[in-house]
Structures are given as structure tokens and as C-alpha cells.
């Protein structure tokens, strides 16, 4: 639908309001729009383009409008709003440009709403109501690990930290189970015959590419349910459900649906996350959703029944495939056209709201579900109530990134991206949680965001998969939906003391497969606040000039001279030894891994030794120095003239000779003063 002439006039009025707004009444103050007229220079502001996926500027949007390239007024509104949203996301809160962006964004909303000919942007769903927290305490369970449950081979961590986590989680409320909404309500034909058909379809399904029968993973589960933190303990298995279907045990479709839900949850908790058997459980769960859905969404076996064609690391943005035959999957902003937004959606007894983290079906690898945060819940305009979809922001796993072989990751670390994808509600496998590092080291999320036994991830950085750049997150509020930024998002039950997660090496060194790989990447930190005023843009750190003296060696004792130096000539910068000062490890002090030989053996200090020494308050690593502390006593003044021993002996002889001469002269004078009689 083209923009009408009346709407064009109204849009010009909105643009005039923005371009004419000044910081003082009467048009005498500073024109706020000037900071947003043009995009930052790509050479000077490389970090801006690494952080902002879709840059916009006012002059660019205005030029596009004047060319008639917008087909809908809301597209223009979205682009202008994106100009100010990008500024709020990139710049420090409280800076001049941050304040100006807030003012102009509010002005845009007011001016647009004042034009009756312009369609109004969709209303933002209100923030979810805080539910009453369950303060019920549960007595600690001493036996925290089931001997029959498979465990993961974790990295090293202070055992005291594990004890702190166990003590806290033992006192947290446990999940009471799913609710009453979102289940199957009707089945066409004979319901019990349909239940048997569904069970048989799951039992006999084979993966087309390999011929594997995923149901073997379900059949290997024991009927007894003794998994810790699982909300139900009743025996459940595929054979039990099949028998109940044949004996017409189920009185309502919901009863059958609940049993299948319990079976898949039991399988997800029993098998190790990321394993082949775990992936088979996820695949069969998505197949079950496909068999029982009432919506018109299409999914096929070629995508493992997911509603999207590709997952993280393989998916292409919609705009990048316009001229190719590839199917676009993700966007860098949330679409709003022809969508009716909802506050929440109920699916399989669980209520999903904006801000919730979920596991979504990964069409490329069921064993690695997509980690996503819900930003919008919606249904197509005019679609039935049951056809619900959600827009989620993707978080990448380490194996979905490109990184150097020596990079380390927190245990269960993921990386926020700028990719947004639309998923059918049937893609949702389960509710999970993801904490930013500042909260993860201090405690565990409060209900209903997380319960013991649910998957929990930690996020410390963003990842730009186009530029292969990791950007450490400084403004955590910018990573979550705007409606939730004013509240204490994902409040925690605090630990007794800070507990740092384990550090693990690259998953590719352990044989893990993924769309990422070993390669060069860039590590960056979000810009620091500019002192002394300025626009508040976050400037990238620049490398030191070539004439800057090199940093001193890590062990200053190696540079102490054994002879006095009267005058020294500085070495040219290229001749001075260079050593990284950000790594203080034995490997670095030894000259790097190549200096240790082809098969270096490295061991960690035992806990009983480590506990006697201090740790770095930021990284949690043990303080270690390659040399003893230096004597801080002042060195002698090396510019004071020194005399050789030979010269000092000469002076001594001269002094003695002078004394002898004086004595001889005195004797002669005495003799002349007392002549012999």
C-alpha cells in the first residue's frame, strides 16, 4: 500500500518537528538533530558498526522518503525510531547524545500521534505482573546426586564454590509442574485410536539421512522416575503410554498430552545435554508437537520439523538473500506489520511471556537447541487464536562462533547476537534461564524465571557473526526487551559468597562439531565513558603510536645493571623486547606454548594449596608472579663520579707524601731555631 499525499504531508510535518527542535525555547538553543543527521565514519568508528547491526541516520531516512522508497508509513516510523534506539544502545547513559536521543524519540512519538492520517505503531505489550514469590523453605537434601544419573565431566573449580551452590539450590522452591492451559482439547475420530497412531508414529520414525530410529532413546529409559528436581516421580515410559492408549485408559486428550509431556521431560533430564540420545529426545518431542498441532504452520522432516529452515551459524538474514535462492531466516529488528501482539501464550501447561528464555528446535542439530529470549508473542492478523508465534533473539553457543584455539569460555556460556527469528509456538521445547555474569556469580534466579533442574546459561559478551567480533557487555539493560529494563530483571537468591563458573577450553578441541570453527576473531569491550564532556560516543581503543616506549619486562630484576652506567642510549622501539602484559601465566613467562615443546604437561594446584593464596577479584584466578618482589630501597646515584682503586691509591700516597714533606720541613726549621752550642 503506497503512502498517500495526505500522509506525505503529515510525515513532512513530523520531520519538521524533529529538525526544528532546539535545546532552548524560541529556537535559540542547540539543534538536537545534528548529532543524528549522518552516520559515523566507518574508519573511525569501527566498533559502532560491530555493535549496531542496522545503522540509520535522519538524513538517510529523509532521502529514502523523498525518493518514495517507503511503501508503508510505519516503515518510515520504524527507521526514524531506530536512529534514536541505536544511539541509546551504543552510548553511555547520561551522556549528551543519550539524553538527546531520548528527547527526540519521545518527540517522534508525540508528533506522530498528533497526525490523524498516519497509522499508529502497534502498542507495546505491558510488562508482566510480578508474581508472588514462594518463600517456602525446603530442607536440604544431603544426597544431591543420583548414582544412576549420567554426569558431565566438568572443568576444575574450587570445591567450596560447588558446596555453596548446592546449599543454596537445596533451599530453593521446586517447580510444582505445568498448569491447566495449553493442552490438547479435542481429537478427531476415535481418540484412543489416534493416541495409538501417535505413539506408533514416534516408535517407527526414522531419520531420512541416517536411517536411525530415535525412539531407541525413549525405550532405554527405565519406567521408574527417580531423577532429582523432577516435579513428578510416577513411573512413565513409552510402553506404559502405549498400553494405556490400547486399554482406553485416558479419559481426556489432556491426560494423554500430560503423559507425553512427562516422558519427554524425563528424557531431557536423564540424558546428558548435547549427547546423541539427548538430541533424539528433542527431535521426537518436536515430531510430537508436529503431530498434535492445530495451527497451519508448515514443518517437514528435512528441517527436523522446525518451523525455520536454518539455525544459528547457518541461518541467513532476510536482507542478505534477496537476490539469491537461499531462504532468509533472521532479521535485525522486530517486524510489526500484519501482526496482533499478545501478552502471553500458553503451550503444554506453561505460560510464556516477553523476556522468557526458551530452548527452541534447531533444524541443523537437535542436540543443540537454539537458546532464545522472547521479545514478542503474536499471531498473524486475522489468524485463528491457536496459531501463535513468537519472535526470539538468538544466543549463540561457543561452537556456533569463530574463535581462536586458545580462547576460554565460562561453563554454559552463550553470546547475545543481533539475530531475531520468528518461531511457531510448537518450536518451544522448554523454559530455561540465562543470567548475565554480574548476577550469575552472585546467585540463582528467583521463580518463576528458573527452578533447580532447569537449564541455566551465562552471558558475558555479544557476538557479531558477520565481523567475527566478541564485544563485552557493559550495559546489561540494553540486552533485554525494553518493557523490562526499568525493573530488576531476573532477581536472584544470593550465594553466601561470590562463585565464579568454571573455565573451559574451546569445544572444537574436544571434538565438538558446530557451524563455527577455529579462526581469528576480535575481542572488544564496550567503550568507556568519556571524561571532560563530549558527545558520549564510545570510541574504540587505539593502538599506541610507534614512538611510544615499550612496556618494561614482567620481571624487572632482569634489567638491573651490574656496572654503573654514566650515559645510556635508548634502544629503537623495534629492538626492544615485546611481551604481553595482559597474561600473567606460567605459559606466558616461559615464552608461550611453542617454548614448552610438542607435548607440554600442565597440572593445576590442589585446593588445599590454592586456598592459602589470594585471587584476582575480577577473574577469580590465583595470583602468580614469575619472580620475587624487588627491593624497594633507592638505588645509588649512578651519575656521581667514581674513582678507580689505582687513582684512590695514588691520592693516598700523595697525601702521605705531603705529610712526610711537612714533617721534614718542620725538622729542618727546628734545627735552625736551636743551633748547636
TrEMBL record:
Residues 115-161, 515-557, 656-677 are annotated as: Disordered. GO terms for biological process: chromatin remodeling; transcription elongation by RNA polymerase II. GO terms for molecular function: chromatin binding. Residues 543-557 have a biased composition (Low complexity). InterPro entries: BAH_dom, BAH_sf, Bromodomain, Bromodomain-like_sf, Rsc/polybromo. One of its GO terms (cellular component) is RSC-type complex. Residues 131-140, 151-161, 668-677 have a biased composition (Basic and acidic residues). Residues 350-474 form the BAH domain. Residues 118-128 have a biased composition (Pro residues). Keywords: Bromodomain, Chromatin regulator, Nucleus, Repeat, Transcription, Transcription regulation. It is found in: Nucleus. Residues 28-98 form the Bromo domain. Its main location: nucleus. It comes from the Eukaryota. It holds the Pfam family Bromodomain. This is BAH domain-containing protein. It comes from Botryobasidium botryosum (strain FD-172 SS1). The lineage of its organism: Eukaryota, Fungi, Dikarya, Basidiomycota, Agaricomycotina.
Amino acid at each position: 500500500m503506497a503512502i498517500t499525499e495526505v500522509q506525505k504531508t503529515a510525515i513532512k510535518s513530523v520531520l519538521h518537528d524533529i529538525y526544528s527542535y532546539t535545546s532552548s525555547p524560541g529556537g535559540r538553543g542547540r539543534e538536537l538533530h545534528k548529532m543524528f543527521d549522518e552516520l559515523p565514519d566507518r574508519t573511525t568508528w569501527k566498533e559502532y558498526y560491530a555493535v549496531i547491526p542496522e545503522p540509520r541516520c535522519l538524513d538517510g531516512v529523509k532521502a529514502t522518503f523523498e525518493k518514495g522508497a517507503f511503501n508503508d508509513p510505519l516503515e518510515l516510523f520504524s527507521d526514524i525510531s531506530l536512529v534514536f534506539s541505536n544511539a541509546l544502545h551504543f552510548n553511555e547513559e547520561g551522556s549528551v547524545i543519550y539524553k538527546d536521543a531520548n528527547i527526540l524519540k519521545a518527540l517522534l512519538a508525540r508528533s506522530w500521534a498528533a497526525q490523524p492520517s498516519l497509522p499508529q505503531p502497534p502498542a507495546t505489550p505491558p510488562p508482566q505482573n510480578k508474581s508472588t514469590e514462594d518463600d517456602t523453605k525446603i530442607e536440604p537434601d544431603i544426597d544431591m546426586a543420583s548414582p544412576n544419573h549420567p554426569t558431565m565431566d566438568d572443568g576444575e573449580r574450587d570445591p567450596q564454590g560447588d558446596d555453596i551452590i548446592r546449599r543454596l539450590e537445596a533451599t530453593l522452591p521446586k517447580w510444582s509442574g505445568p498448569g491447566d492451559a495449553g493442552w490438547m482439547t479435542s481429537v478427531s475420530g476415535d481418540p484412543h485410536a489416534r493416541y495409538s497412531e501417535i505413539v506408533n508414529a514416534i516408535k517407527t520414525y526414522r531419520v531420512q539421512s541416517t536411517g536411525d530410529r530415535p525412539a531407541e532413546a525413549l525405550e532405554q529409559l527405565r519406567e521408574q522416575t527417580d531423577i532429582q528436581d523432577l516435579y513428578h516421580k510416577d513411573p512413565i515410559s513409552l510402553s506404559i503410554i502405549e498400553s494405556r492408549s490400547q486399554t482406553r485408559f485416558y479419559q481426556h486428550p489432556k491426560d494423554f498430552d500430560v503423559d507425553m509431556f512427562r516422558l519427554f521431560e524425563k528424557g531431557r533430564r536423564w540424558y546428558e545435554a548435547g549427547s546423541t540420545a539427548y538430541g533424539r529426545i528433542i527431535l521426537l518431542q518436536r515430531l510430537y508437537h508436529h503431530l498434535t498441532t492445530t495451527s497451519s504452520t508448515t514443518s517437514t522432516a528435512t528441517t527436523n520439523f522446525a518451523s525455520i529452515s536454518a539455525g544459528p551459524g547457518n541461518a541467513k538474514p532476510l536482507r542478505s538473500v534477496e537476490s539469491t535462492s537461499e531462504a532468509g531466516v533472521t532479521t535485525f529488528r522486530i517486524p510489526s506489520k500484519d501482526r496482533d501482539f499478545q501478552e502471553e501464550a500458553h503451550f503444554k501447561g506453561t505460560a510464556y511471556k516477553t523476556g522468557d528464555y526458551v530452548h527452541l528446535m534447531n533444524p541443523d542439530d537437535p542436540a543443540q537447541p537454539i537458546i532464545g529470549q522472547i521479545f514478542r508473542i503474536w499471531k498473524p492478523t486475522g489468524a485463528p487464536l491457536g496459531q501463535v508465534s513468537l519472535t526470539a533473539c538468538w544466543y549463540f553457543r561457543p561452537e556456533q562462533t569463530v574463535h581462536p584455539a586458545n580462547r576460554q569460555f565460562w561453563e554454559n556460556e552463550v553470546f547475545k547476537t543481533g539475530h531475531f527469528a520468528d518461531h511457531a509456538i510448537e518450536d518451544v521445547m522448554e523454559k530455561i534461564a540465562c543470567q548475565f555474569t554480574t548476577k550469575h556469580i552472585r546467585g540463582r534466579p528467583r521463580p518463576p524465571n528458573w527452578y533447580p533442574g532447569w537449564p541455566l546459561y551465562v552471558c558475558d559478551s555479544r557476538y557479531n557473526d558477520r565481523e567475527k567480533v566478541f564485544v563485552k557487555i557493559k550495559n546489561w539493560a540494553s540486552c533485554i526487551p525494553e518493557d523490562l529494563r526499568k525493573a530488576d530483571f531476573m532477581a536472584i537468591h544470593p550465594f553466601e559468597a561470590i562463585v565464579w563458573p568454571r573455565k573451559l577450553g574451546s569445544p572444537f578441541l574436544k571434538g565438538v562439531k558446530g557451524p563455527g570453527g577455529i579462526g581469528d576473531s576480535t575481542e572488544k569491550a564496550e567503550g568507556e565513558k568519556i571524561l571532560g564532556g563530549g558527545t558520549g560516543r564510545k570510541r574504540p581503543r587505539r593502538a599506541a603510536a610507534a614512538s611510544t616506549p615499550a612496556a618494561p619486562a614482567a620481571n624487572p630484576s632482569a634489567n638491573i645493571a651490574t656496572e654503573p652506567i654514566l650515559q645510556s642510549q635508548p634502544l629503537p622501539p623495534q629492538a626492544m623486547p615485546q611481551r604481553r602484559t595482559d597474561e600473567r601465566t606460567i605459559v606466558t613467562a616461559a615464552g608461550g606454548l611453542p617454548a614448552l615443546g610438542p607435548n607440554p604437561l600442565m597440572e593445576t594446584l590442589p585446593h588445599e594449596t590454592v586456598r592459602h593464596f589470594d585471587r584476582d577479584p575480577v577473574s577469580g584466578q590465583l595470583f602468580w608472579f614469575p619472580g620475587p618482589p624487588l627491593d624497594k630501597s633507592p638505588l645509588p646515584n649512578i651519575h656521581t663520579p667514581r674513582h678507580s682503586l689505582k687513582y684512590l691509591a695514588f691520592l693516598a700516597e700523595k697525601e702521605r707524601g705531603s705529610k712526610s714533606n711537612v714533617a721534614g720541613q718542620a725538622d729542618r726549621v727546628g734545627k735552625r731555631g736551636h743551633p748547636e752550642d
